[in-house]
């Protein structure tokens, strides 16, 4: 389904995008073509084949319709994106291994116009490791935290008042291995997330079968090993991404190698994780090859979703509000191949799934009562999409 670059250029439509009306003064005119329920959607990609970098489109929260695609910024392998809490900046990893001639990937900073979604490049810094695959911004907006999959490390470049990145103020190199001889010979930091209270940072390391826990010193931009310093998943599980429950009582880890979700009780005071259970993301009887990718909790806290690559589906779970344990509700095809990432809009009405190997982003409506997904028939061709980030309503 890839398109020649010349055809892609014809398909890209010049269009002004805008966020919700509440994000600007009532007296300010709305850009042409924009609607009061529009939401800006940014898509990170791999720049193999037709892709040139970060794309944007517009989601109509009233209809679930995605608008035409537009190139927002040309950059190499922006495979994960993160918004600044102010909505004024956007950050992207550069999933490469030789930025600036060194053995490191890159982190890029962009100025973001919240009314139009326009991006302007600010600067780049080394990620301090190879193959950076995930990043987040701490909740004060003072630091970026980036996970380097290739070298198994984490770094924290500080954010200036103008949104530009400084040299990393903290760097942690993981050590060790686990039981899978092909995928776990060494550390592979796959995600870094900050807890809702902005006190701890959690790094799922696929190579170690651990979620490492750090105290986050916001003033100094430092990561300090916590006590306890980690929580384990099953040997060979391969933890990939994680998601907090809105109540801060539970934490969920999706495991790439054995296609499971591990549920933990979370002690927000100590930053400690207590194992509850592990459940499969696959339907009974499915025996073909599969790896998982993304995980997210619905804003209501009632449902959890995880993506399967191979089964090419989203696993849907109901969350017990008292125990945090999971009950499988079903599986929904993503209408494409290799769903690398997905995102739920801030209102909880829609889920957008990025199918990496079929170059499409597909829109699903979420049933508020059951959590089940219903394809809307809306989709958009995006070259090799691997990350979706939405501008929240103002």
Description:
- This protein is mainly beta and 394 residues long.
- The chain has one domain: 7 Propeller (Methylamine Dehydrogenase, Chain H), CATH 2.130.10.
- It has one helix and 28 strands.
Structural class: mainly beta
- Write down the secondary-structure element order: HEEEEEEEEEEEEEEEEEEEEEEEEEEEE
> Could you name the CATH topology?
Methylamine Dehydrogenase, Chain H
Total tally of structural domains: 1
The side-by-side strand order for the widest beta sheet comes to 3-2-1-28
DSSP helical segment count: 1
Calculate the terminal CA-CA distance, rounded to whole Å: 36 Å
Instruction: Name the CATH class.
Output: Mainly Beta
* Most strands sheet: 4 strands, antiparallel
**Strand elements, count:** 28
Tell me the overall shape: globular
- The proportion of residues forming helix, as a percent range, comes to under 10%
Q: Which whole number gives the mean pLDDT?
A: 91
**How large is the radius of gyration?**
20 Å
Strand content: over 45%
CATH level 4 superfamily = YVTN repeat-like/Quinoprotein amine dehydrogenase
Task: Indicate the CATH architecture.
Answer: 7 Propeller
Spans of at least 5 consecutive residues whose pLDDT stays below 50 are: 1-34
Features:
394 residues, mainly beta, Methylamine Dehydrogenase, Chain H, 4-stranded antiparallel β-sheet, 1 helix, disordered N terminus
